[in-house]
Amino acid sequence: MKCGYCGHEIPEGKLYCEKCGREVCIVPDYNPLEDMLTQQIRGAITGGDGYEDYLEYDAGRERDPGRRSTVRDVRSGTGRNTGGVSRSTSRDVRGGTGRNTGGVSRSTSRDVRGGTGRNTGGLNRSTSRDVRGNAGRNYTENLQERERKRRQAERRKARRRMRLGCLFMIFILLAAIIGSGITLYMNSYKGFVDRGNKSLRAGAYNEAIDFFERAIQKDETKADAYIGLSQIYIAKNDLGWAESIFQEAIKKQPENADIYEAYVKFYMDTDQKAKIPHLLEDVDDKVAELLAGYIIEKPKFSLDDSETFEDVQELTLTAQDGCKIYYTDDGEEATIRSKEYTEPLQIEEGENVISAIAVDEKGVPSLLAKKTYIVELPIVDAPAVSPSTGQYNSPVQIEVKVPDGYEAYYTTTGEEPTTASNKYTEPIDMPEGETLFKVILVNAKGRMSGVTTRNYVLETE
Description:
Elements: H1 32-46, H2 51-63, E1 69-70, E2 79-82, E3 85-89, E4 98-101, E5 104-107, E6 117-120, E7 123-126, H3 134-186, H4 189-201, H5 205-218, H6 224-235, H7 239-252, H8 257-269, H9 276-279, H10 285-290, E8 300-301, E9 308-309, E10 313-315, E11 317-318, E12 324-328, E13 339-340, E14 345-347, E15 350-359, E16 369-375, E17 384-386, E18 390-392, E19 397-401, E20 406-411, E21 422-424, E22 428-429, E23 433-443, E24 452-458
Parallel strand pairs: 1-3, 9-16, 18-24
Antiparallel strand pairs: 2-3, 4-5, 6-7, 8-11, 10-14, 12-13, 12-15, 15-16, 17-19, 19-22, 20-21, 20-23, 23-24
């Protein structure tokens, strides 16, 4: 052993340093760390943590600073007494050994389960083998583990606080976004249209009109607001006013295919399909492409009407696939209620006016196709009349040869005959004196032949 003051080696059994003369400290100075280590060890054995005993001891020291007492064990302990000063240190959980030297009792537990003692000259010494060794290391590791867990708990709390803060900020942000979105929606084109439709369904027409008009002010190129307005007037049975909404819109936007499409749908819904071909007659190419399904080709005629025919003709009408043809031959315009075309038409002599439309499966008609055909059959030459021109002394009858399908008209005064002149039905007596006889033939279509003229002189005396 070395002197704690000068470092001189002290022989075994000496109680003071021969060099500096100071007394050897047999009992180590009190170190709270050792007590804490001991309590940890005892706690590990008994199932407790030993920390409470240490606190109890510490409180006892404050009450009696003149007495150095350390509670080392709840169940048992050892004591020492030196010169009336009692120092006791519990070094063992289950028991300890003591020593007494010169009236000074010092006991030190050197082992967890027990200790061995020795007596030299009345001095009892007990040596602890495992306080500063494994117990110190275990305690240090335990402290480190507690500190690690404490820091982990603090980090978890910090993370929870951060998560809660983030969630709160996200909630505030979402609330702001949703509030802004609702405000923007309510004042947007779609918002006005949706509210207009809702008012329309509720029968609040004036309120609906206001919403739809505000939507058009937002964006006049979209068709939804015009459709909504038209539905209000349809509900009021005012189709004319409903139609005018679309008419005004396409005047301002003649190339807006969406409004044209809404206009066509309006005609379809209100059974005014006959107006569709006129609406789409001269539209922009973009509109025509979008609404190609509503643009029906007119029927095609097999005969050209630019020439005059000299005999009866056969006329064939054709339309695009899936369409029916309706026609008239009396000059009236064809409609879906006219005669349906099923076979070729006969073009008779005279003027023939044929009009036709094609109608698709949806009932949408084409524009009207109309042609006029003229057939003029060749007419016979001027009629044959007998007797020939001359002077006669006895009564004679004038006879005109009339072919089938013709009628003859004549005059005896030299005037040009017409269908208003005398109609020839049978031979006529030649008048007395000089007569200028003229006659024509007229067919069933009113076409007249050339005029035959005869000059007669009848003198019977």
